[in-house]
Amino acid sequence: MRLSRRTAFEREPNELSVSLARAALAGRELVDLTETNPTRAGLADATLHELLADPRAATYAPEPCGTIDARRAVARYYQARGAVVDEQRIVLSASTSESYSWLFKLLCDPGDAVLVPAPSYPLLPYLAELSSVRLAPYPLVRAEHWRIDLAELERTLDREPRVRAIVLVHPGNPTGSFTRRDEAARLGELCCERALTLVVDEVFADYAHGPLAPDRLPTFASFTGAPCFVMSGLSKVALAPHLKLGWILCADEVSEEARARLELVADSFLSVATPVQVALPDIFERTEGLQARVRARVAENLGALDRALAAVGAACPVRRLAVDGGWYALVEVPRTRSDDAWVLRTIDEASAIVHPGYFFDVAERGTLVVSLLPEPRGFALAVARAVRLWCELPG
Ligand SMILES: Cc1ncc(COP(=O)(O)O)c(C=O)c1O
Q1: pLDDT tens by residue, 368-394
Q2: CA of 121 to the centre of ligand 1 (A)
Q3: Most buried residue among 67, 184, 334, 359 by CB atoms closer than 10 A?
Q4: CA–CA separation, 88 vs 137, rounded Å?
Q5: Residue 232 sits in which domain range?
Q6: Sign of the dihedral through C-alpha 178, 181, 186, 187
Q7: Ligand 1 atom 4: the closest Cα is on which residue?
Q8: Distance 203 CA to ligand 1 centre (A)
C-alpha cells in the first residue's frame, strides 16, 4: 500500500513518553503540570453540553459559513471587545486547527511557505505538512520579552520567495506575549509590500493576566494594515474543546474573492455540527464567568510558583519569565543538564510532569514549560518539589 509522504510523521515514542509509561506501570502518582485540558482541570462548565439538546438542532439546514445566528453571536463576542465586525465576514469551522488548515489551503499552493514564530505551538508543523505547506520560522527575542525579530523576519522573506502568509500567535503559546502595536504596524507594511496575508491565532486573547500595557494590541479583529484573518474558538474562549467549534474572522482588508473562496473550502466540508451552532448564543452567555475562573486559577498557580521560587531565597538559580497572558509559565533552570534530563528527573524525583522548552521550539536550553491550569493544591505541592529539585536542594 502506498502512502503519502506528508503523513510520514515520526511516531517513535520519545524518552518522556517511555518514562511516563514506566511510571504508570509502577503505579506512581504524578502531578501533571502539562495539563491544559479544561475539562480535566475542573474548569469547564460540566452542564454546557446540555445546551446541545435544543430541538431546533434536529433539522439539518447546512450553511457553508455557519448559521447566521451563530455568526452573529461571534460578531457580538468581538463587539464586546471593542471591534465592530460584520457577521458576513465570519466563517465557522470545527476548531482552530481546522481553521489553520483551511487558510493554508486558501493561501498556499503545495510547496509554498508560511512564516511562523519560534517558539510556538507544537501542532503547527503537522498542520502545515498535512496541507503540503512549508514552515519558515521567525525568531522571538527572549531577552526583549519575546519581541519579534523583524530584521530576521525580513531576511527570511528575502530568502524565501514562496512565503504567502505570516502567522502570529497572539498572545504567544507558550510565551504568553501579546504583539506590540508597532510590530503589528510593521508587519502590516511588510504584508502590503510583498502581497502577504496575516493569519492571527487569538485563542488565548481573553487571558491577559491584567490590564494590557498600552503598547500591546488586545486583538487584530479591527486590523486594517493588510489582509488579515483572525482565528479563535470555543476550546479556549468557553473552555469547551469538546464542543468543536472555531471561527475565522475575515478582517476588513480581506478581499471578497478570498472570502468567497474560503466559503467554498468550508462548503466542501460542512464540518460544524448543528447543535453547537444552535447553542452558540447561550454558550457565549456563560463564557465570562468561566473565563474569570480560569484567570483566578492562573493567577493562583503563578503565585504558588513564585512563592516556591522566593522560598529558595536570593541565590535561587531558577527564574520564571515574565508573561502578559495565556495558560503557561516558562521557567529557566540551570543548564547543568539537558532539558530532557531535567524533565526525566522531575518525573523521577519530584513526581511531576513538565514539558521541555524545545517541544515549543524554544531555542535556548534550560527552559521548562509549566501549565498554570492544574488543580491548585496539587500544583503548589508539585511545583514546590520541582523548584527544590531544579535548585539542586534536598526535597
Ligand atoms: C495557540 C493555539 N492555537 C490553536 C490551538 C487549537 O485550538 P482548537 O482546539 O480550537 O483546535 C491551540 C490548542 O491548544 C493552541 O494552543
Answers
A1: 999 999 999 999 999 999 999 999 898
A2: 8
A3: 184
A4: 33
A5: 49-285
A6: positive
A7: 96
A8: 6
